Amino acid sequence: MSEQTLMAGKVVVVTGAGGGIGRDIALALAKSGARVVVNDIGASVSGEGNDAGPAQKVVDEIKALGGEAVANTDSVSDSRSGARIVTSALDSFGRIDGVVNNAGILRDRFFHKMSDDEFDAVIKVHLYGSYYVSRAAATHFKEQNSGVFVHMTSTSGLIGNFGQANYSAAKLGLAALSKSIALDMQKFNVRSNCIAPFAWSRMIGSIPTETDAEKARVERIKQMTPAKIAPLAVALCSDASQDTNGQIFAVRNNEIFLISQPRPVRSVHRSEGWTPESVLSHALPAMKANYFGLDRSGDVFTWDPV
Fold first, then answer.
1. Of the N and C termini of the chain, which has fewer Cβ atoms inside 10 Å?
2. Is the pLDDT reported for residue 167 higher than 60?
């Protein structure tokens, strides 16, 4: 199957596609034959502002390559505007076959300093935004008995990171949302998967770099261009990956990872039941050897990408 025909006839919405990872996914989808709704409100990394330019610029790039695309500047963080993103696909191209939930903002702050607004704003865009757009598309996917979701999660949520309780909570919640969509909609031939991308972007650029080790890690991340994420995203959107559903992947330069999902590690049993004292004297000591450390993403991915 050639690159131009892999997504032929398909219509895909990509949120947050005015730059970075979203832009490269939108371009790659178009090169593979898809018609693309390029959604971006043109805001700053923290979510302020509104500029129609970035989305239209990507549309112009796609058209210059001979593809078809339309710009949309609705926000994902509101139910009605999220639904308008899906309507834009239907109005422009008559159908919708895929949604790539990529839109996001950052408001990094250590937890003991985080405000309600900083927590709420990030949850609204990443988790609620993915829900709103996915829910609007789900009705059409059910009716046509086909459709695919690709959600951008993060190792900040899957593993952990400093100063990102809002972002981490949203991204781990998004992995659960994706799994639930996969379970609920598999009978309608609808698939839902996640990608945790490692790529240099405006959002990564806002990560605090207070130590030499953190600065060195950011320099390594700069080598990982957003274009590295696009091939997996396109593959997951295609009909050729119909047997891939409810999975979590990560992409780190030229590496693709399948990420584990929570399962029981060890159990202890006491026939007479438990008391707080026996939990402390038996259960916790028995399981302590299998405790997970307070790792951050950078503690797990410690080797340089190639």
1. C
2. yes
